[in-house]
Amino acid sequence: MMKLKRTLTSVGKYGSLLLGAFVAIIPIVAVFFASFKTGTEYTTTGPLTPPSDWTNFDNYMRAFVDGNMLTGFKNTVIILIISVIGTTIIGSMVAFVLHRFKFKGSQYILGAFLLATLIPAVTTQVATFQIVHTLGLFNTIWAAVILYLGTDIIAVYIFLQFMDSISVSLDESAMLDGASYFTIYRKIILPLLKPAVVTVFIIKGVNIYNDFYTPFLYMPKSSLQVISTALFKFQGPFGAQWEVITAGVMIAIIPTLIAFIFLQKYIYNGLTSGSVK
Amino acid sequence: MFGLSRLSYETQKKIIIVSFLVVPLGLLALFAYLPVLNMIWYSFTDWNGYSAKEFLGFENYKTIFTDPEYFRVFKVSLYYFFATFIQLAIALYFATILSFKVKFKNFFKGVLFFPYLLNGVAIGFMFLFFFRPDGTLDTVLTAIGLEGLITQWLGNPNVINYSLAGVSVWRYMGFNFIIFLGAISSISGEIYEAAEMDGANRWQQFRYIIFPSIRIIISLNLILAISGALSAFEIPYIMTGGANGSATFVIQTVNTAFKYGKIGLGSAMAVLLLIIVVIVSSIQKKFFGEGE
């Protein structure tokens, strides 16, 4: 009886896990299969039939070239690098000042950052749009960069949390050697924040790579398209050519998959320590 | 650098405070607070983006509450709202199972979490493909003998919001899952051992150990999910553009403001959404107190 019950629990457990995995994977697998099929093969076979020729990269070529995905990747990478580095610098500076110096108003500043998290960015787009326009940044790469920099509070949190574990006595001994506060920030704090920096890189990187509405609203010019907006345009020219669209989808997904496989451990840690507190 | 070290620490401190904060605070004011203030101001005008603004009072708000075209979209949020509960339940279930001994643990963790990392537009296309007539879903249903259920997943106005809310569960479940997993793993293993010695089964362990320990995280996730349901935008916009009765509040806002040039009205909608989100967040603070 005990044994039967245990077997049943185990079947239920693995059964539900396999079902969950199936549901998570199947939409991706179908797209993956379709991306290798020829036009006629696509119309004559079902979506879960594997392609006859796994080396048929024609769709990938067409998606990449005709879909201008190279431009998309180039812009995404530029925006990503500037924003991520900028966020790290700005976030760590704020955290350094708020954590190490107690001064009048420091509580209010932290409060102002906290309160801003309550404002869902998507609600204020209409008004933000006017500001970006007034600054003359509309349809430039800087529209996205400055928005990614300006609305980032998560990075400040992560750095603040991490500063707790960096002992103040390190600062003090550096001061005995005559180091300036700036040197302390640059030479002591910043290097010790490395694990937090990795976390910020990942969270920010994922957000920027996947963001759609910022580039869509603020940089509609086709030479400024990023991966998201480049892919979004597939609707038009490729219409019903699903074999090309699916190849485009795979091109957008593959970098994420590679990053995920290599950074798995950091991603898990980063997300849990970053968003829980 | 800059001869800073020659100054006294008191002076240095002042310089550092000012110079380190001026840019971040400037950005915060410019892109977080100024938009909110402007938005409130626009919401009382009939501004279209370029002509002079005329003060309207509460006219825009009245339109939203009385014109069914604007009010209806709140109903669409309900689909996403209920989907959220399913999403949290699934996430909690898998997080609990995978906190105990399971074969291929890392594989399952990875597969369940991965969708969260994917590009929204890629997900949109993937599910357009998934829901197509004779597409992936229809094929799977036919294979398991449920072809009777097949319908126009995105063409049938009675079904479309279930389909889209389902995509959003697929996309965000992994995020809740990983947060729950982290929270559960912070519970000390000794507690389980003690419970097991007392003869507690898995359900009792969940009910009396895991659930109370992660109550705050659950409530936090719930709040994030509620405001997420209200601000659902990307998936329905990319997949249907809001057609067939799938327009959410944010799609309506964006269309009103940018497509039809009614910035005043769009702002009033955004202000309403903001108010709701703030109320929901403060209820959460009240109920669950020391969230930090």
UniProtKB/TrEMBL annotation, chain B:
Name this protein carries in UniProt: Putative ABC transporter permease protein
Gene3D superfamilies: MetI-like
Lineage of the organism: Bacteria, Bacillati, Bacillota, Bacilli, Bacillales
Family membership noted in the UniProt record: Belongs to the binding-protein-dependent transport system permease family.
TM regions (residue ranges): 15-34, 78-100, 112-131, 169-187, 208-230, 263-283
Keywords: Cell membrane, Membrane, Transmembrane, Transmembrane helix, Transport
GO cellular component: plasma membrane
ABC transmembrane type-1 domain span: 73-284
PANTHER family: BLR7065 PROTEIN (PTHR43005), INTEGRAL MEMBRANE SUGAR TRANSPORT PROTEIN (PTHR43005:SF2)
GO biological process, one term: transmembrane transport
Subcellular location as annotated: Cell membrane
Membrane topology: Multi-pass membrane protein
Source species, domain of life: Bacteria
UniProt cross-references to InterPro entries, sorted A to Z: MetI-like, MetI-like_sf
Primary localization: membrane
Pfam families on file: BPD_transp_1
